[in-house]
# Entry
Amino acid sequence: MYFNNHIFCCTNLRPEGHERGSCAGKGSEKLRNYMKDKAKELGIPSTRVNGAGCLDRCELGPVIVIYPEGVWYRAANKSDIDEILISHVQNGKPVERLMLPAR
# Structure
């Protein structure tokens, strides 16, 4: 099976107290697992939700990036995940309020 969309969820874990923090330290693993289940529940086709190592923006995290568009998000809770999946992945409308600033 091939996928049209790939969603990468940072699950990087840095030592506690690290100046940049870590996405895993902010609950990204639970959010990734929720996102995988929610995408299946919504019946979103041809989409793969993956855990990723460091995406180099942990200080802004939990961080998610969606390809092929290359849209970066901060998703802090299940409501954010729901909004990203429904608005962006299902309906093609990025969620501006959750998008990370361009570098």
